[in-house]
Structures are given as structure tokens and as C-alpha cells.
Amino acid sequence: MSKTPDPSPPLRAFLARERRLVAAARAARKRAHAPYSRFHVGAALLAASGTIYRGCNVENASYGLTICAERVALASAVAAGERRFVALAVASAGGVTPCGACRQVLAEFAPTLKVIVTDAAKRGRCRTFVLDELLPHRFVF
Ligand SMILES: [Zn+2]
After folding, report:
1. Of 60, 63, 76, 130, which sits most exposed with the smallest number of CB within 10 A?
2. End-to-end CA distance of the chain
3. Does residue 95 belong to any structural domain of this protein?
4. DSSP single-letter state for residue 141
5. Which position has the higher pLDDT, 3 or 75?
6. Of the given ranges (32-41, 79-88, 122-131), which has the lowest mean pLDDT?
């Protein structure tokens, strides 16, 4: 039986950063306002500055006014002056990927953003994508 070697220091730091991002998304999910769908989502967006911005979905009785966790995190980051982003973690039941609207809004700033989705019910289970893989041929003019 072979033993998995310890990761190199840069890889360890990279993995630790991703774990922190996923943990932040899970924590943000607890603040979701989702009385209608009861589908709680948390997002954590890592800016190039190293700061993590959190978001949760905020639903409204007028359903169309609901905003997703991903766009809440992005808007918060942009309002803080950030424009460059490295990775996004999203936590939800089932580990869903961002909706089309969020993909388009995120692509405005970071078309090659790393997107990590995690199943909030299954600790540690993550899938990783690149945004332009989730949204090929985004709208640009
Ligand atoms: Zn969305």
C-alpha cells in the first residue's frame, strides 16, 4: 500500500486558501434569507488583494427581486473597490453551480474565475470549474 506524499509548501498553502474560501461560503450560507424557497446559498469571493467577500441569497416576496449569494458577494467586493478576483466558493444543498445571471455578472470581472461548488450536506465534497467553462460565449459588446 502506497502512502500519499505530503503536498509541497506551495500546494499546501493553495489547499489551505481553498479550504478557507469553502468554509467562508458555508458560514455565509447560514445568513441566507430564503423564506420562500428554503434553498439557502452562501458564496465567498476571493479578491486578488487576498480579501474574501461573503454573500448569501436574499429573497423577496416579489420573487423577481431576489438576489443570489454570488452577486451579493460580488457587489460587496466591487463596492469595496475590488475589481480583480481569483476564486469563488458556493455552498448549497446539493452543491449547485451559479445560475446563468450570476455567471454573466461574474464574467464581467473575471471570465477565468475558479469556481468551487460544495454540497453543504456532505462535508468536504467539492467540484471545481473555470467560469468560462460554465459560461462559454458570454455576452460581450
Ligand atoms: Zn445566481
Report:
1. 63
2. 55
3. yes
4. -
5. 75
6. 122-131
In a domain, 11, yes or no: no
Quote the ligand 1 centre to 13 CA distance (angstroms). 29
d(CA 5, CA 15): 15
List the catalytic residue out of 70, 82, 108, 133: 70
Distance 25 CA to ligand 1 centre (A): 14
pLDDT single digits (tens) 9-41: 777 777 889 999 999 999 999 999 999 999 999
Q: Which residues, including other chains, have CB under 8 Å from residue 80's CB and lie 6 or more apart?
A: 51, 53
Q: Judge whether 19 lies within some domain.
A: no
- Is 70 annotated in the active site? yes
Q: Which domain holds residue 109?
A: 31-134
Model pTM?
0.92
Q: Are 131 and 89 in contact (CB under 8 A)?
A: no
Specify if 90 maps to a domain: yes
Per the CB < 8 A criterion, the answer to whether 82 and 75 are in contact is: no
Band of the pLDDT at 47, cuts 50, 70, 90? very high
CA of 77 to the centre of ligand 1 (A): 16
Structurally, the chain folds into a number of domains equal to: 1
